[in-house]
Design a protein that fits this description.
alpha+beta; Muramoyl-pentapeptide Carboxypeptidase, domain 2; five-stranded antiparallel β-sheet; 9 helices; elongated; binds zinc ion
């Protein structure tokens, strides 16, 4: 089984030169698909206009077969705004463009799962186009035409900020998700922490400290913010030590 880092490493070279927002979306896409049990690889990212022209020349003015009808500047790839993907097979080397594959056996085609995640991240899918369908292709155009891009026009700060917000919101949601049993366990842990903190405070009453040690301040703030302790003043050394340890293990996360 491949780790997320291994899967990500497969695409790292192809992410170079992408517009930062498209890069963020592509990286998030790899992660989100991985979590669903679908591994993908970015097979194409930025293709410079010179590279595109060389490709166009192939089979025309240069030897070889014709592989594209697009001259340089006529693809969103040329501006770092598009990526192509393929499914990465379990051996970590082979790739597949099989749109019917369902490797994670959830009765949803893996290809469609990738498309769903990509759309949620704000990417446009080439499979939705009516004239020419480009199934492995995603892009983010910010409403800019290729003509505008060729003239040097860039997405506005507001547009990129909005695109980042969509990605961040989606990524944030994933982290907050807890199952019911996890929530129950977490509530039980909070109660234990609260009662232990009270006990410790009572036991250590004699040797209370006049000032909260600086190293314990973040933990004390977190405990108060989590509603577990009304006050963290006048605690003992051991009390502050305990609160700090609990904070480190994440007990005060809301
Ligand atoms: Zn493409």
């Amino acid at each position: 089984m491949l780790t997320l880092d291994q899967v990500k490493a497969k695409s790292s070279k192809r992410l170079i030169g992408l517009h930062p927002v498209v890069l963020a979306a592509a990286a998030a896409l790899i992660e989100r698909c991985y979590v669903r049990g679908v591994n993908i690889i970015i097979t194409q990212g930025l293709r410079t206009i010179a590279e595109q022209d060389a490709l166009y020349a192939q089979g025309r003015t240069n030897p070889g077969n014709i592989v594209t009808n697009a001259k340089g500047g006529s693809s969103y790839h040329n501006f770092g705004l598009a990526v192509d993907f393929a499914l990465l097979l379990p051996d970590g080397r082979s790739v597949s463009w099989d749109m019917n594959r369902d490797y994670n056996s959830n009765n949803v085609k893996d290809w469609i799962e990738v498309v769903d995640e990509a759309k949620k991240l704000g990417l446009e899918w080439g499979g939705d186009w009516t004239s020419f369908k480009d199934y492995p292709h995603f892009q983010m155009t910010f409403g800019l035409t290729l003509k505008q891009l060729r003239a040097g026009k860039q997405p506005t700060k507001a547009q990129t900020a909005a695109a980042y917000a969509v990605i961040d919101k989606l990524q944030g949601e994933g982290e907050e998700e807890m199952t019911t049993s996890e929530k129950e366990a977490f509530e039980a842990l909070k109660e234990t922490v609260a009662s232990q903190a009270k006990q410790i405070a009572a036991l250590e009453g004699k040797s209370n400290m006049a000032v909260i040690p600086v190293w314990a301040l973040p933990a004390c703030e977190a405990a108060k913010a989590a509603g577990l302790l009304d006050t963290t003043a006048n605690g003992s050394y051991d009390f502050y030590r305990m609160v700090t340890i609990l904070h480190r293990v994440g007990a005060f996360k809301k």
